[in-house]
Amino acid sequence: MEKKDSHCDPREVLERKQLARTAPRIAILEKLIRSDRAITVNDLVSEGMDMDRVTIYRTLNTLRDKGIVREIPTSSGTNYYEMACRHNPLHPHFYCTSCRSMTCLPPLAGGEMKAWLTLPEGLLARDLTVSISGLCGRCDGAPVRKEKEK
Amino acid sequence: MEKKDSHCDPREVLERKQLARTAPRIAILEKLIRSDRAITVNDLVSEGMDMDRVTIYRTLNTLRDKGIVREIPTSSGTNYYEMACRHNPLHPHFYCTSCRSMTCLPPLAGGEMKAWLTLPEGLLARDLTVSISGLCGRCDGAPVRKEKEK
DNA sequence: TCACGGATGCAACTCGTTTGCAACAACGGG
DNA sequence: CCCGTTGTTGCAAACGAGTTGCATCCGTGA
Ligand SMILES: [Mn+2]
Ligand SMILES: [Mn+2]
Ligand SMILES: [Zn+2]
Ligand SMILES: [Zn+2]
Predict the structure, then answer these.
(1) Is the residue at A80 inside a domain?
(2) What's the pLDDT tens digit per position in A90-128?
(3) Is residue A92 part of a domain?
(4) Is B135 part of a structural domain of the chain?
């Protein structure tokens, strides 16, 4: 019997990249694998991740360095993260500057994004990000900026 | 007699967008127009901009909202800015995660970047960013992270 | 089972950016 | 040319994402 979705299993991913299989890492990976959208550290915390925030930051950095997760910067300073294996192929993202939500956009017609651009000599590319910022459907015209909960 | 480069003149730009022509704004625009690369608030400060940092932030936000400058986010949380009229056409950027330098890349062969992607209904696009992160020529292999001056 | 090196938690910190508020100055009307 | 309105600036304080130092902990490989 073999596992379904083996390529995206937390423990296998960690083993393949020679990372210790610790509880925090597995929990974070499970969350990321389940998510159909890119999420933030705050998303992880507010959805009941028990560990320290610092652990989350460090874990995501590690996973990013190993190419396991993709890091998506925003102009607000908050980074979003998504599993590379789940969010395939590489696609553009839409960031609403009003409600600060991140949406995955359909992959570009015409194949691999990387293929478009030719990088000058001497640059070592790690990651490619295409993102569009603007106002999402709910915010179009009616800003909702920064309502504080509680 | 007519001005050369009239389309990029600070006072004209401000007038066209109905913004008051104040000293700080003109100074910042002049700096941006002269620069062949995208720059940060710190760049502006360290190159002798006299005004308060807050003024720079507010000015850049205003210019961004009016579509005069382009805002380029990075995973380190620092935003870069470039004059839209000077940095034409819209092109990808390379960000070195080691020395944190931003480089303009040649525009994509094959025309306008915007043309590639089709946006789902209900999304109002403001800005498009294509950026590649990795290691630049000077950092390739030899990290220089965060040397503090003085 | 043991020892070692990497991973975690906690507290403090860094730094880019925002906000509140009072003083100020650009600009259009008189 | 002056004046009042309204948008802009400076200052101080706050905010928030992310990092760092250090002691403890625990996964891993032997
Ligand atoms: Mn995505
Ligand atoms: Mn550029
Ligand atoms: Zn929105
Ligand atoms: Zn570099």
Answers:
(1) yes
(2) 999 999 999 999 999 998 876 666 777 788 888 999 999
(3) yes
(4) yes
Nucleotide closest to B20 measured between CA and C1' = C26
Q: pLDDT in tens for each of the 150 residues of chain B?
A: 444 466 789 999 999 999 999 999 999 999 999 999 999 999 999 999 999 999 999 999 999 999 999 999 999 999 999 999 999 899 999 999 999 999 999 988 766 667 777 888 889 999 999 999 999 999 874 444 444 333
Structure token digits, residue B63: 């210019």
Contact A129 B132 (CB under 8 A): yes
Give the distance (Å) from ligand 1 centre to CA of residue A96.
14
The answer to whether the bond into B89 is cis (omega within 30° of 0) is yes
Dist CA A32 CA A34 (whole Å): 5
Q: Are A127 and A70 in contact (CB under 8 A)?
A: yes
Residue of A130, A135, A144, A145 for testing the chain B interface, max B β-carbons within 10 Å: A130
* Ligand 1 midpoint to CA A139 (Å): 20
Ligand lying closest to the C-alpha of residue A134: 3
Global pTM? 0.91
**Chain D nucleotides covered by protein, CB below 7 Å:** 7-13, 16-21, 26-28
Residues B65-105 pLDDT 10s: 999 999 999 999 999 999 999 998 999 999 999 999 999 99
Which residues lie below 8 Å from residue B100, measured CB to CB, with a gap of 6+?
A: B74, B76, B78
Residue ranges making up the domain that contains A98: 10-140
| Domain count within chain B | 1
For residue B132, the number of C-alpha atoms closer than 13 Å in the C-beta half-sphere is 23
Q: Specify if B2 maps to a domain.
A: no
**CATH number where B40 lies:** 1.10.10.10
**Alpha-carbon gap, residue A93 to A130, rounded angstroms:** 6
